[in-house]
Write a structure and sequence with these properties.
- By secondary structure, the chain is mostly helical.
- The strands form two sheets. The protein has a two-stranded antiparallel sheet with strand order 1-2.
- The longest helix has 30 residues.
- Keywords: Calcium, Glycoprotein, Golgi apparatus, Metal-binding, Repeat, Signal.
- This is 45 kDa calcium-binding protein.
């Protein structure tokens, strides 16, 4: 019969063994570190030009940027506004913004003040892209010579898609055939066209840091902005005249409407695009949008566009029709400016003061 001391030692050893087994099971069963997975996904995403460009009125696929008003009003502070935030905190943030826009301190915002603010917030998005580009450029410039070749980029891109980087690099150096699926090859072909466009004369297929910025963010280069506009018109232009009619611009995306909710979404889509075409993009109101008109519309640093945008933003919330915005109006129409609706704004606005 075991002594009490021997029994306790045996029990302790058994407990330790079971604890070790459970720990090992947890390690092997636990999914890969989520932060590592996020970094891997982020790294892959960084190698592709973003689908969405902050502060630009239209997406790369020709859709209207529905967050544009929020982006040019909030700039880098946009993430701080959401429906889950404390309403009183969002109110205070809006009051701070109002006071920054109101530079002459007359307690109302004019179109000129809003124009200046829009340009300032757009520049914030530009500077954010510049800083991110520095990181992305270092990632694809392994030899640090200040230039990235198409092959260097292609290797990193395919490695991000799960291909073996060393194997791909070896095959490219020795001109061997790459076994790439059709979808990935199509993406590569489109990226190479874009690479050529970002390569300033004389073309050498080597991109500097500034050219790489234009490759990822066409809004930073007039030439790349022109290329982006060409691509959008090519996708929407049905008769090949390199111009857009309102019927071409509002044509529904490919697909069928399956239910009433989808029909309502499509109706909204058509209505919004028709309004934008007729009131904003078609500058001379002749029923035709030329490449030049669309390019002017797409240019985020166009001061004339910023002034028109300022006037439109004021008109949405200008309840007393004095062509200015007061604080109460901005708070009441907070959802338009920030994407976050403030509840009971009228009851609380004076309390905040």
């Amino acid at each position: 019969m075991l002594s009490r001391q021997a029994f306790l030692c045996t029990l302790g050893s058994l407990y330790f063994s079971l604890l070790l087994i459970f720990l090992l099971m947890d390690v092997y069963a636990r999914p890969a570190n989520s932060s590592v997975l996020r970094e891997k996904g982020k790294e892959e995403q960084e190698l592709l030009p973003p689908d969405h460009l902050n502060g630009v009125k239209m997406e790369l696929d020709g859709h209207l940027n529905r967050d544009f008003h929020h982006e040019v009003f909030l700039g880098k502070d946009r993430d701080g506004f959401d429906d889950d935030s404390e309403p009183s905190r969002n109110r205070r943030k809006l009051m701070v913004i109002f006071n920054k826009v109101d530079i002459n301190r007359d307690k109302k915002i004019s179109a000129k003040e809003m124009q200046r603010w829009i340009m300032e917030k757009t520049d914030e998005h530009f500077q954010e892209a510049v800083e991110e580009n520095k990181i992305h450029f270092r990632a694809v410039d392994p030899d640090g010579d200040g230039h990235v070749s198409w092959d260097e980029y292609k290797i990193k891109f395919l490695a991000g898609k799960g291909f073996d980087e060393k194997e791909i690099a070896q095959k490219i150096r020795t001109n061997q055939e790459l076994k790439i699926d059709e979808e990935t090859q199509e993406v590569l072909d489109n990226l190479k066209d874009r690479w050529y466009q970002a390569d300033n004369p004389p073309p050498d297929l080597l991109l500097s840091e500034q050219e790489f910025l234009s490759f990822l963010h066409p809004e930073h280069s007039r030439g790349m902005l022109h290329f982006m506009v060409q691509e959008i018109i090519r996708d929407l232009d049905q008769d090949g005249d390199k111009k857009l009619t309102v019927s071409e611009f509002i044509s529904l995306p490919v697909g069928t409407v399956e239910n009433q909710q989808a029909q309502d979404i499509d109706d909204d889509w058509v209505r919004d695009r028709r309004k934008e075409f007729q009131e904003v993009i078609d500058a001379n109101h002749d029923g035709i949008v030329t490449m030049e008109e669309l390019e002017e519309y797409m240019d985020p640093m166009n001061e004339h566009n910023a002034l028109n945008e300022a006037r439109q933003m004021i008109a949405v919330a200008d309840e007393n029709q004095n062509h200015h915005l007061e604080l109460e109006e901005i708070l009441k129409y907070s959802e338009y400016f920030t994407g976050s609706k403030l509840m009971d704004y009228a009851r609380n606005v004076h309390e905040e003061f």
